[in-house]
Amino acid sequence: MKLSIAVLPGDGIGPEIVEQALNVTKAVCLKFGHELVYETALTGACAIDAYGDPYPESTHELCMRSEAVLFGAIGSPKYDNDPTAKVRPEQGLLAMRKKLGLYANVRPVTVFPSLIERSPLRSDLVKDADFVCIRELTGGLYFGKPQGRSEDGNSAVDTCSYNREEIERILKLAYEYAGKRRKKLTVVDKANVLETSRLWRQIAQEMAPNYPDIVTEYMFVDNAAMRLIQWPASFDVLVTENMFGDILTDEASVITGSLGLLPSASVGLHTSVFEPIHGSYPQAAGKNIANPLATVLSAAMMFEYAFGLMEEGALIRKAVAASMDAGVVTEDIVLEGQKPRTTTEVGDWLVNYING
Ligand code: IPM
Ligand code: MN
Hints:
The chain is an alpha/beta fold and 356 residues long. The chain has helices at 14-32, 45-51, 57-65, 77-80, 89-99, 123-126, 164-180, 195-207, 221-230, 242-255, 293-307, 310-325, 343-355; strands spanning 2-10, 35-40, 68-73, 104-110, 130-136, 144-149, 156-159, 184-189, 215-220, 237-240, 263-267, 272-276. 43% of the residues lie in helices and 20% in strands.
């Protein structure tokens, strides 16, 4: 099979972790006899420096003509510390999501047995956790209009808005996931306060009878935040609006022991994007210490979701699990008494495993 992908390393540790994920992707293609065609492009702070635009048209065109996008991370302290900057790296990611119509962000949370003791939670609470967060990605507070600052600079507004079509399509996708899993869907909202949440809940209630084999549960977001800590194993599929999903998935990610492990797939109308859920971790950039596993696991999702190549994805997952069992991991997930490995050492180990 011929696979054509766009590679967008982004900022900070992005280039280093994407390099490893790309090496793993190449090794898998070689092993299974696929032809990999890829092109690299800029996005984020590096694209602002080069083109004055965090998601240049040339990058968008590349994404549109590719079958999948492998994405690193974006963001730079230069902008984080300057709230008045008009052009921001994150706008590149948001523009990409909007222009590619990526309305669903799928974030699976699985626990790796060898890392259970790294979790901030007690191991009896985390050991059975296995759920998927489905975050709406192109609506809500991130995109609602009006958004902006008053002329005198002393007031600001963001708008949360959703329409029926946006809610229906994400709920439909969430029901499909739940149908393939343990058949439980938790709809997370703040329907006791927000009108958009009441619309979400109303539409979910209308749709639920169409999925009689799936149990639909409704939960307020504050309660869900608590329950993720108290009893993570009680969740199967969670679906929620953009901002709630952003917050809950960072919370969910540490349940597994490290933010450096969670992959994601953003899917929708055009080319799907596969990216780790962590950020650009600028403090670690260039030090060869960043954990490449979330990006490598995103590549596994790319094989499975973008190309339907399940065996290829499974081999990557197996390699990642084996590297953890062998203790070949970066410092963020190293166990006591083990020697932390560099980003490239972990990547090389995975490639060897796949070749072997
Ligand atoms: C994420 C990130 C982004 C988001 C930022 C970088 C804009 O935190 O993908 O979760 O908030 O969506
Ligand atoms: Mn986030």
